[in-house]
Amino acid sequence: MYDSNSIQQVLLKFSNSFKEHREDISAVLLSPEKHLWLGSDETSTIERLNLIDAKNFAEHKQYQVMDFISLPAPSSDEIDIEGLAYDDYYLWFVGSHSYKRKNPKMEKSDTKNVQRLATIITEPNRYILGRIPLINGELVASSPYPKDSTRQLSAAKLEVTPMGNLLMEALADDIHLGTFIKAMIPGKDNGFDVEGMEVQGNRVFLGLRGPVLRGWAVILEIELVESSPGLLKLSPTGENGKGYKKHFIFLNGLGIRDLCCDGRDLLILAGPTMDLDGPVQVYRLKEGFNLQADILHKPELVLEIPYGNRDDRAEGITLFGDVLGKASLLVVYDSPSKTKRVVGDADILADVFAIADGK
Fold first, then answer.
1. 110: phi > 0 → left, psi -120 to 50 → alpha, else beta; which?
2. Which residues lie below 8 Å from residue 241, measured CB to CB, with a gap of 6+?
3. What are the residue boundaries of the DUF3616 domain, all occurrences included (predicted)?
4. Residue 1 — pLDDT band, cuts 50, 70, 90?
5. Cα 330 to Cα 345: distance, rounded to the nearest angstrom
6. 98-126: b or e for each residue (b if 16 or more CB lie within 10 Å)?
7. Are 245 and 290 in contact (CB under 8 A)?
8. Over residues 98-108, mean pLDDT
9. What is 206-269 written as a DSSP string?
């Protein structure tokens, strides 16, 4: 059974360089060194906080992704980082891969706002899927592998293309997802939208916020290999040599907002695909790294997370047991409550929830 009561709150203290984006946090990861890594859906940077104690992270450091990986557009254009993962001395990150529809603005006329609702755009940086070596708590462009000096770790990204990247090209003709991509349906209109990531070696698992197909969410599994220095390509791991596999997950009609490894299982943060308030839940997918492709899966509901009225929308989860000493999840929020969660000039409160360890 699940318990919706948080154990405690954790204060995340940022420097002024991030204060305007503390309300746009979209990804979180606790690394083995107990650094908290965060991404925003409005920047092209990755943030690091140091553990002070079980209720405080501070000493903010900001990393520019362009210092490690070349971007297809200026760094002022957001990557819209929606997922972070760590494995074998690499920090991985992924953009949303989504189209977006312009929002109406109160100061504009109805005529102009109706036109804005018809305007769909995308940005090249949103299609970045990359990795950066993480050595002794620092991101570096390259480094010898700590356990074997004859191996070299290097920053790299999935090859970009006119459609975004090689994954988008591979999916364009997919029988389930291709129509959403070709029709340029925005992510918040139940279009294609990546919002979760986990990694095991060169295998990358991408959780889709949308589309949700008659109540079934989708996890994409890909395997990446180096094609040239700094570039990655899809390995033909899927059926008939496709560069991806699909796993269909029943989350009671919700989309995937984040993925988190818990031993051999995958924890799935689920929430609405559309821009609305609704249930936010965590599911446990047993043996989540060893799924047969094109199979329907019904994971176990393990946690209900409270949500607000146009605020407090859970966006990221990471295991917190190494800090707290018992099985738990740290949860960060997009559009945090200004009265309950936003603190001071540049700080924000996250929640910690107890969770069964899955054994």
1. alpha
2. none
3. 24-351
4. very low
5. 22
6. bbbbeeeeeeeeeeeeeeeeeeeebbbbb
7. no
8. 94
9. EEEEE--BTTEEEEEEEEEEEEETTEEEE---SGGG-S-EEEEEE-TTPEEEEEEEETTEEEEE
For the chain, the residue count is 359
Confidence of residue 359 (pLDDT cuts 50, 70, 90): low
Res. 222: pLDDT tops 80: yes
Distances, alpha carbon 125 to alpha carbons 47, 163, 230, in Å: 17, 12, 16
**Cβ atoms of 205 and 181 closer than 8 Å:** no
145/334 Cα distance (integer angstroms): 35
Per-residue pLDDT of 303-319, as tens digits, reads: 999 998 989 999 999 99
Q: CA 149: distance to chain centroid?
A: 31
CA distance 23 to 11: 13
pLDDT value of residue 239: 79
Q: Are 235 and 220 in contact (CB under 8 A)?
A: no
Structure tokens at 78: 């957001």
Residue type, 111: T
Return the domain boundaries, the chain.
Answer: 61-307
* CA separation for the pair 78, 125 (Å, rounded): 6
Q: Which residue carries 């140091």 as its tokens?
A: 50
What distance in Å separates the CA atoms of residue 230 and residue 218, rounded to the nearest whole number? 28
The strand pair at 35-40 and 328-334 is best described as: unpaired
CA dist 161 and 181 (Å) reads: 14
d(Cα 96, Cα 316) in Å, to the nearest integer?
14
Report which DSSP code applies to 153: E
Tell me the pTM.
0.96
Three-class SS state of 191: coil
Question: 221 is written with which tokens?
Answer: 């599994």
